[in-house]
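Model the whole thing, not chain by chain.
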Amino acid sequence: MDRTVLLIEDEPNIIEAIGFILSRDGWRVATHSNGVDAVGAIETRKPDLVILDVMLPGRSGFDILRDLRAGAGTADLPVLMLTARGQAQDREMAAALGASRFMAKPFSNAEVLEAANALVRP
Amino acid sequence: MVSLNLLIAVCLGYVAVLFLVAFGAERAALRGRAAWLRSPLVYTLSLSIYCTAWTFYGAVGYAARSGMEYLTIYIGPSLVMVGWFWAVRKLVRIGRSQNITSVADLISSRYGKSTLLAVLVTLLAVVGTTPYIALQLQSVTLSVASFSQADATARPLPDQNSTAFWVAAGLAFFTVLFGTRNLDANERHHGVVMAIAVEAVVKLFALLAVGVFVVWGIGGGIGETLARIDASPLGEWHVVPDRWLALSALSAAAFLCLPRMFQVMVVENEEEGHLRTAAWAFPLYLMLMSLFVVPIAVMGLDVLPAGANPDLFVLSLPLAEGRSNLALFSFIGGFSSATSMVIVASIALSTMVSNHIVMPIWLSRQAGGAMVSGDVRYVVILARRLSIIGVLALGYLYYRISGGGAALAAIGLISFSGVAQFLPALLGGLFWRGANRIGALAGLIVGGLIWLWCLFLPSFGPDMILSSGTMTEGPFGLGWLRPYALFGIVGLDSLVHGVFWSLLLNTVVFVMASLATFPTPMERLQGAQFVNIFDHSAATRGWSGGMAQSEDLMIMAQRILGATEAQALFRQAARAQGLQGYLPEPTSDFLQMLERELSGSVGAATAHAMIGQITGGANVSVEDLLAVADETAQIMEHSSQLEAKSDELARTARQLRAANEKLTALSVQKDAFLSQISHELRTPMTSIRAFSEILRDTDTLDAAEKTKYADIIHGEAVRLTRLLDDLLDLSVLENGQVRMNIAPGRLRPILDHAIAASGVDRGRLTIQTGGALETEIATDRDRLAQVFINLIANAQKYCDARTPVLTIAAREMEGLLIVDFTDNGTGVAADAQDMIFEKFSRIGHQQAGGAGLGLAICREIMVRLGGSITYLPGQQGAAFRLTLPLRDAMAAQ
């Protein structure tokens, strides 16, 4: 059974890059590009892993994460947070809200693969 | 037949009922359930002590002797209540706000809290009221006697004097019991007032009952009674104008000045509003009281044997007809009239005597002033009780000396004219600020002496005090001093004569002396307080404080007010000053308040003297007052300065707050920008890094993929460059390092270039241009175009209308070229309008590319070009106004 990942990110080029990397590694990659209905998309698709950008149009990635951790079915869902801001406070906030992993942009492709595989064993 | 014993039993029973009423009312008042005690009806009924035994018995006698003239006694007060309502209201207001305890206290307070004046008024009041009290004793005695005459079986009364004595003693007992229960006159005598109200009802119904009996029982109906009245000499309506005028004026004056009236009207007044009811209800009461006077008088003259005392017709008519129960009721009515008057009058007089004569003397005999050992309260109450007994003893003595000979009404009028001497000083004090102490003293002395000479002393009868020789020849043969013909004016009625001269000279001397002398500062202050009572009901300022020891004041106040009350008062004052415990600072305000409280117990002048003894200043000097006034002026100036300062501070604070808000917002924005710029830099870099790694590490890419990924890397690199360019551009603009290439040109080509460069033709936005597009300006055309492009790009990005339209309109105005860029979107929210020109601000959130530098750059450019860019609120959509100077263009040409 293929592992599924839902990539929530609004920059088309980054979507394309991560999609390329993970699908080559055997992941089934789905994408979602805005924050407003991201929680609904996760609940519908029930992915094995969520890669979540912080700065999303409509709703912050942190808010989405908070909802996920509060939701019954998604409380233990592995979430890899991505942020382009990289300050310490973002990292702390992500940790406090229960992100499984935090990664600052720009990242190396190997890092993303390693993180995804660490969160969801093949 | 009513036996004498039954009569005495009924009297005692009636008094017992009054006791119960008074006692019950006191208890109810103590428990705070005295709402019904404070009704305007009770107040009105208590005013009816104006109607004494003189009215009850004497009015009929008066009518029998002098016809309709008795009406004047009712007309005066009715006119006062109706026509002088405002003056009565003023009197009541002053009495309440100044804690006035008596008419002497009022006059003394008004004229600088003068003790001398208070003593004079008190003496005059005692002298004037004593005959009146004697009159009441006489009426009770006579009425008892008329019963004993009718009662053939009873042994004749051994001595009428003993009746008078026991009545006086009984009244003294009752008055002491209920009149001196509480010390502070302003705590009011609920019990007494209630008892008086009951007595008022009793006497009214008694008189009405006799009247009804006379008209329908003896007279045989209204018609026949009227016929009898017409037949009698009483039916002739002959008015003596001077007597009518004098008597009406006299009774009106007495209504205001009588100590007992002052007591019920001002001191016992619970609420100023009660006056409104009394203003119509009291005249109505008087009218009912006078309704049957003439029928009774006429019937008495007709039915009773000649020589019967007309003053007792009210009683002797039912007795002669064998209606002993009615006679008994009538007797109780007369008894009520007499007792209520005596009770209130002796309370009022005892307050005056103890406050203005006994206490000052006692205080001055105490070396340590008010700080003596012992409880002053007991002294005051004892003084009151002794005064009550003394007043009644005086009344009894007068009765014994005068022998009860004079007709009732005559004594009443003489009493009236005595207290009427207060009128000039009273009214002058209420309405004329120029009135002063010297004037009041002089007027009272002159008026009082004339009254004594022309009215009081002759009232004892010829050869009792004044010899008949003096009456006819004048003292020492001085004809112009004859008591009934002063200054040789003869032919006047003796009463009119006396009232005329005493009041006239009283008033003239009062006015002249007031005009000729200067009031003391204290009088000026009090005068302003009294005359302008409705403007400001604040108390006078008088004490400068500081010297007084709060503890001494506390000791004194405890003795006068009682420990609990004084402690409560001091604690409250201390709390008002923000202090803990029981000792407030002896500030002027506090001393003022304390003096007012004390004056409720011992009168204004005494309270003033007591505090004066403790504070060290026995009297307030001009210097004190000037100091107070000076201080007040300084405080006022200081406070207005403070006010100005605090306004200024508030303004500064507001500005600071605004600045702070802006700084905070800027700081937030800066943080946000750092995040933003980080995001803006990292996002393209992420793509560049990811795809360069893909290109490097992936061997299986086909040519198309390679090209695509290389294109992405290129595009993101361009985006990074543009961001860096913008930052650099802004930085040099801000630092003033950029040089503007000013050259003349027209507006239109620059605008056209900008529109073309914006790529509008490929998007949805429509642009409409108009106005003074051909204007010549001297500017940096590239930079201006950059601003135009930015504004157009903003409209492209942010205008949210269905068919977005950007209107660009130019016009010249006051040496400026104005170019407005207005779109049809929703515009910029009011709270964001301040921020949009700041660096790195972006309305909304990361919606449309760009790092939020565009408008900041525009602003810098416009400033460099000598113009401005502003947001124009209140348009249909987002509107930006550019201004450029035109003069430079002219200069450049």
